[in-house]
Write a structure and sequence with these properties.
Elements lengths: L2 H8 L10 H8 L2 E2 L5 H7 L7 H9 L3 E5 L5 E5 L3 H22 L6 H18 L2 E2 H10 L6 H13 L3 E3 L8 E4 H4 L8 H16 L4 H8 L3 H11 L3 E6 L2 E6 L12 E4 L4 H4 L13 H4 L9 E4 L2 E6 L8 E3 L10 H12 L1
Antiparallel strand pairs: 1-3, 2-3, 4-6, 5-6, 7-8, 9-10, 10-11, 11-12
Helix pairs in contact: 5-8, 5-10, 6-7, 10-12, 11-12
Length: 345
């Protein structure tokens, strides 16, 4: 078994199966969307004949939404999965955010929370798609002075409370809308059904992966993750790699890999962030070139699934730096051209 080849296939980075952004996001269950502009390229790389306009239509229509959810960070998810994922993940995400606020000496009373949320709701209702600057202006009009950090916590709590989600796509700025206006249909599941569904989607789209990988990615506790894996039963089978147990789902892809392909991955891509242990694709000595110790992930160059360099997405021409040996440095003109074509489609 070639675990790197299987991950590339199941993450849809090689021979993608889906034709729409919505299908890709639904397949992945949730996709890291920390970088507002580059999240679009992360979806495009996994889509057959991707276009920016197709992403915009799916985003603006509410088929896919962006919000803080797993680990208290940004993700894209399908609106059909919104209800059950929020119910399953919000309590843990709220606990994480409360921990961050406590560590930063920030305390928000129930009275303040209610007052600010009512203002956020009113602004989102009036604007349709409101920016953080719109919220800040409304607070000033109510004689409320609040730093951006504190306001961000209020917005996150409104998202996790099911009140706000992403608004229409902006070129550079995140916008917010009322969830009730953006999401018209979403599946409701019991807690056990939701656990099983999340695990199923994770291992189908990211196999082979370990129990610890799933726990890291989901933000759930290890007991919940063990329960989820147990519920899947014979859907999963185990492969031992270097003394670690890796799970594969019965629906995971195993065919279609061809060597010789290079990738220009965006920052925060699921190819790295989906796993707690990333040693299959990058050596420990080069890990700081892929991500920092405090959770900043960089744009990386991938050759046959192995991370070998960095690239600059916003430069006018292809700019790369490599940390692999010279024979591993891939030609990237085709990949750069594909990226440029996506930006204008």
């Amino acid at each position: 078994m070639n675990p790197i080849a299987l991950r590339l296939l199941n993450q849809q980075l090689y021979a993608p199966e889906f034709t729409s952004p919505t299908e890709v996001v639904r397949h992945m269950c949730a996709m890291q969307a920390q970088d507002y502009r580059m999240m679009r390229w992360a979806v495009a790389m996994r889509t057959r004949r991707a276009s920016h306009e197709a992403f915009r239509k799916a985003y603006d229509s509410g088929e896919i939404v962006r919000m803080h959810l797993l680990r208290g960070t940004w993700q894209l998810l399908s609106s059909k999965d919104y209800a059950w994922m929020l119910s399953l993940c919000a309590p843990r995400a709220i606990a994480v955010i409360n921990g961050w606020m406590k560590a930063g000496g920030i305390s928000i009373s129930a009275k303040e929370s209610s007052q600010i949320q009512s203002i956020l709701v009113r602004v989102a209702e009036e604007q349709g798609s409101a920016t953080k600057e719109d919220f800040e202006q409304a607070l000033i009009e109510h004689d409320i002075v609040m730093d951006e950090h504190r306001l961000s916590y209020h917005i996150r709590m409104a998202e996790l409370g099911g009140v706000l989600c992403s608004g229409d796509l902006h070129s550079k700025k995140a916008t917010y809308a009322l969830t009730s206006k953006k999401i018209s249909h979403s599946v409701v599941l019991s807690n056990e059904e939701a656990l099983a569904q999340m695990a199923r989607r994770y291992f189908i789209s990211r196999a082979p992966a370990t129990l610890e990988d799933f726990a890291w990615w989901s933000g759930l506790n290890i007991g919940e993750c063990r329960q989820a894996v147990a519920m899947l039963g014979d859907e999963l089978h185990v492969e031992q790699i270097d003394g670690r147990a890796f799970y594969l789902h019965e629906k995971s892809r195993t065919r279609g890999y061809r060597s010789g392909k290079s990738l220009l991955l965006p920052p925060y891509d699921e190819y790295l962030i989906s796993y707690k242990s990333r040693d299959l694709v990058i050596s420990s000595e080069h890990t700081p070139r892929a991500h920092s110790n405090n959770g900043i992930f960089y744009p990386v160059v991938v050759r046959d699934g192995v991370i070998c360099g960095n690239w600059k997405p916003y430069s006018k021409r292809l700019q790369t730096t490599f940390f692999a040996t010279s024979e591993c440095v891939p030609p990237l003109d085709g990949e750069w051209e594909e990226y440029q074509q996506y930006l204008v489609r």
